[in-house]
Write a structure and sequence with these properties.
- The complex is a heterodimer.
- Chain A is mostly helical.
- Chain A is built from four helices and no strands.
- The radius of gyration of chain A is 12 Å and the shape is globular.
- Chain B is built from 15 helices and 14 strands.
- In chain B, α3 packs across α7.
- The chains are: A mainly alpha, B alpha/beta.
- At the A-B interface, α2 and α3 of A face loops of B.
Amino acid sequence: MPDDDLTRRIIDVIANTQHMAPERITLDSTFQELNIDSLDGINILFALENEFNVNIPDDAAQNIRTVREMVDGVTRLVEGGAGSSAPAHAG
Amino acid sequence: MSNRRVVVTGIGVVSPIGQTAAEFFDALTAGRSGIGPLQSMAPGLLRFPNGAEVRGFDALQHFDEKETGLLDRFAQFGVVSARQAIQDAGIEWTPELRERTAIVTGSCVGGQSTEDEGFEVLYRRNASRVNPFTIPRIMANAGASRISLEYGITGPTWTVSTACSSSTHALGQAFWMVRNGSAEMAVTGGSEAIFSLGFLKAWEAMRVVSPDTCRPFSKDRRGLILGEGGAALVLETLDAARARGAKIHAEVVGFGMSSDAFHITQPSAEGAARAMRAAICDARIQPEQIGYINAHGTGTTANDATETAAIRTTFGEHADRLTVSSTKSMHGHALGAAGAIEALACILALEKGILPPTANYTEADPSCDLDVIPNEARRAEVEYAMSNSFAFGGLNAVVALRAWRSAR
């Protein structure tokens, strides 16, 4: 089960990056439904890396198609000690 | 339309797999890759450890110290390859010819390393001033201007910057200028030298660079491998070349371009197909006459499948009879220089009757179901070939070439 706080933060990152309301985004949303293309995708990965101070490998990122897959992947990285879960910058 | 025919009478190249045309073609036919661990970067700075660098290039063998101060590595590649091409063409310069010769080059990012060094001095070392030669070194036309100065060439001279299509656009413009009589001769090509940390980090963020090697059209491809280098061609009319008894490498017969108007980074099969059709139309030939395509073939999942679809759209059933290879598997993706390097690969393939392979190929991909000449060069007397370049930004350029032996 994904951590609720982590999920909310990830959804906020996606919402901020895409300039969309976070209410539009659920765990089951696909990127296609949210109109997130490959270029948007790398921008979200960049924002997530900064938010959670993790490195998301290209291979791991390549097959992510839904918000749930993204939450699962980031959770694994954060809990796996690949980086600190603290935000990279305040605010 | 003009009846002037345009031929290639001089060639030159500085690449990760050879610093002369002969070395370059030997490596291509042997399937020898220039991809390896990046020597210009400290290990661990980047997600991707490999690139296709021009190793052993000693600027001081080509320029004195004062000259190197004014020339970024990218411009050096451009000038050295142009010198080779001009020497190969055996041109005897006259004031009239200098005035009627054009120089058209391509470069995506110009003096990237110089720019990076300047920023490092300012932001990291807190300096308050940068090298006063920074501007003449970084300008994308630095190579073209130096070639003009060196040979006293005073005709139309400029540089095209259209990302990965830059030097194919340059070659096409030079070809059209000679064909339509705006110039009697042209020195064209392109150069790039991109191995600076700032620029490589930007590529890392794009997530399209392979963590190992470049495997175009192969099912297990994992992205492109960045490269550097330069290539140059001398173009002139067939009549002029014959009149002076010049050796002819190949004929340039057509050029086509298009814009996808689709997406800033995703490729479009329709846009690519329109550029190929435009080149074939410009050459006044039929698609069935094309025997070999030097593909854009970057080794990314998206490009290679889209390019395959574009080739199928353009050629129909003939797509199963023509041969396609991506020499980026050996010399890497030299961005703005890629088109010139690959046009040269085409010209040499036509001239020597040997088609270069797609190296590092391991496994067929149903979405890239063309004859991609896996791993082994192939002997074949092809009459017409094409070189494809498709840039980020959706800008496509394709040049069509004809073997000289069959053009006589």
